[in-house]
Amino acid sequence: VLGLLVWSLIAATTYHLHAAYGWVMFVSLFFWILTLLFFMTYLLQLQLKFYVIPWPLVLMIYNAVATVLYITAFVTCAAAVHPTSWRQWDYNRRAAASFFACVTMITYGVSTFFSFRAWKGLGSNAATSQVTDHA
C-alpha cells in the first residue's frame, strides 16, 4: 500500500519534466510489482511447490535491495521537492510522495531485519522449535 501511494502520488504530477522523479517512479513501481508477486506467491502457497529455493534468503536479499534503492529514491524525491513550485498541487503531491517513500524505506528495512532473523532461524517459538531429550 505504501509503495502504491508513492508511485501514484508521483504519477499524478508532471514528473516527466524532472528526471529525478523518473528514478522514483521506477523504484516504487518496480518494487510494488515485485512485492505483489511475492505476496501472491505466499498467499497461494506456491513457495511450498518450489521447495529447493531458499525463500528466507531470497526474501532477505530482496528486502535489503529494496531498502537500499528506496533510500536513493527517498533522497532523490526529497531533494527535488521545491516549495516555490509554480503548481501548488504538484508540490503537495511530491512532498507527500517523499514522506511515503521514507515510510516505505523504513518498512522495507524492518522487513529486512525480520527476514534476516527468519533466515538465521532466530526467534522461533515453542511450536516451531524441536525439543531434544538429553537423558
Question: Your description of this structure?
Answer:
The protein is mostly helical. It has a domain of 51 residues. Helices cover 70% and strands 0% of the residues. The chain contains four helices and no strands. Helix 1 runs antiparallel to helix 2, helix 2 packs antiparallel against helix 3 and helix 3 packs antiparallel against helix 4. The longest helix is centred in the last third of the chain and has 33 residues. The chain is elongated.
Spell out the key features of this protein.
single chain, 135 residues, mainly alpha, 4 helices, 70% helix, 0% strand, elongated, Plasmolipin, Marvel, transmembrane, membrane
Tell me the layout of helices and strands:
Blueprint: H1 2-11, H2 19-43, H3 55-80, H4 88-120
Helix pairs in contact: 1-2, 1-4, 2-3, 3-4
Write a short abstract of this structure.
By secondary structure, the protein is mainly α. Helices cover 70% and strands 0% of the residues. 24% of the residues are buried.
